[in-house]
């Protein structure tokens, strides 16, 4: 059961929404209580849905809102309320028939929507809950320390599941947050059945010198290739503006498009990204007295080291690594099924003793 708002919907708003839902989902009849995702909805359709809702109602809501209000009735109720409600930290993403739960979180400056296709592909009879960092919408201040994000997530997790075993999965920056949560759980005497970090790395300043030099060389090559492609009028801006260079390299040196995260460009998202970068730069991973399951992409980008073992083997009692097809973004988009198969296998092993 997904989290829904509890305000009362108006029949008039249902009448506005119904033809939009039917058109976007290509369904002849959608009831007020039908779940968007159960009807075949996905991130791309959520973007289309909320674009049309904005035109029809005059209210612009983030596509990510579909997790907060996944039925027409819940969305109508939310639209009838004048002030935006707080987006939940804990987001049910996939139902399951048995406990304990699986907890998964997103990358830097992103949302749980970016791992939609990955979660859909995971085969497990345990429910999957996403953990969403706050501050992306400007309604709350974003947190700028991994420790603070981890504490917020842990409190939300404990409301659902106060005792272990815990299964923790983190993508990119989210892997660092899950590692910090695992540290805290073990310090409290709780069992961590699985700590899975997918393409997760500390800030480059913490990497061994040889890896820092290699990444510097790769970034220099990337900048040269980018400059060569730009028209003359934009070359000067690229060379003189840090913001232009950051924007051009936000793809982490990959060939894939970033996953759809349902967030809107603007000052709020800029602050959210900035806070995430500060958190990454400040975080110093501690030695983890347990096992890290690590998944790396087969195609190494120019923003991340090519050998995760050089970083993580010395920071964990046990380290196991799998490699899957794709690059940093591709493993959760075009190649997500291969990653989902690895996670499904690891989850089955982790829960086999419980």
Description:
With 354 residues, the chain is of the alpha/beta class. It folds into two domains: 11-80, ACP-like (Non-ribosomal Peptide Synthetase Peptidyl Carrier Protein, Chain A, Orthogonal Bundle), CATH 1.10.1200; 90-206 and 277-351, Alpha/Beta hydrolase fold, catalytic domain (Rossmann fold, 3-Layer(aba) Sandwich), CATH 3.40.50.1820. Helices cover 42% and strands 13% of the residues. It contains twelve helices and seven strands. It has helices at residues 11-25, 43-57, 72-80, 116-121, 146-160, 173-187, 209-229, 232-240, 242-248, 267-282, 309-312, 336-351, and strands spanning 90-94, 102-105, 128-131, 166-171, 192-198, 288-297, 316-324. The chain has a seven-stranded mixed beta sheet with strand order 1-3-2-4-5-6-7, with helices on both faces. Strand 4, helix 6 and strand 5 (192-198) form a beta-alpha-beta unit. The protein starts with 10 loop residues before the first helix and ends with a helix. The relative contact order is 0.13. Mean pLDDT is 87; it is low at 3-7.
């Amino acid at each position: 059961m997904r989290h829904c708002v509890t305000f009362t919907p108006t029949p008039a708003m249902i009448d506005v929404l119904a033809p939009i839902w039917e058109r976007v989902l290509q369904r002849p009849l959608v009831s007020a209580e039908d779940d968007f995702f159960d009807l075949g909805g996905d991130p791309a359709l959520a973007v289309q849905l909320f674009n049309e809702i904005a035109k029809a109602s005059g209210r612009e809501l983030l596509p990510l809102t579909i997790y907060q209000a996944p039925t027409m009735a819940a969305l109508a109720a939310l639209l009838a309320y004048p002030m935006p409600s707080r987006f939940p930290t804990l987001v049910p993403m996939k139902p399951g028939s048995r406990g304990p739960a699986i907890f998964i979180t997103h990358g830097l400056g992103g949302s749980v929507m970016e791992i939609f296709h990955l979660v859909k592909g995971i085969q497990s009879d345990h429910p999957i809950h996403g953990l969403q960092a706050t501050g992306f919408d400007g309604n709350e201040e974003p947190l700028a320390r991994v420790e603070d994000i981890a504490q917020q997530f842990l409190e939300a997790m404990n409301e659902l599941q106060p005792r272990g075993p815990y299964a923790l999965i983190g993508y990119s920056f989210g892997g660092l947050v899950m590692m910090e949560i695992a540290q805290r759980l073990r310090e409290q005497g709780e069992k961590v059945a699985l700590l899975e970090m997918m393409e997760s790395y500390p800030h480059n300043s913490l990497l061994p010198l040889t890896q820092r030099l290699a990444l510097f060389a790769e970034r220099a090559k990337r900048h040269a290739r980018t400059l060569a492609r730009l028209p003359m009028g934009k070359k000067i801006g690229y060379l003189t503006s840090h913001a232009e260079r950051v924007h051009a390299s936000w793809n982490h040196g990959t060939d894939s498009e970033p996953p759809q995260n349902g967030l809107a460009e603007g000052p709020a998202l800029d602050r959210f990204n900035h806070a995430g970068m500060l958190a990454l730069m400040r975080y110093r991973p501690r030695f983890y007295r347990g096992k890290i399951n690590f998944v790396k992409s087969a195609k190494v980008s120019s923003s991340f080291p090519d050998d995760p073992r050089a970083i993580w083997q010395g920071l964990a009692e046990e380290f196991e690594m799998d490699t899957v097809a794709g690059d940093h973004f591709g493993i959760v988009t075009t190649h997500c099924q291969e990653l989902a198969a690895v996670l499904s296998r690891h989850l089955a092993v982790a829960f086999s003793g419980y």
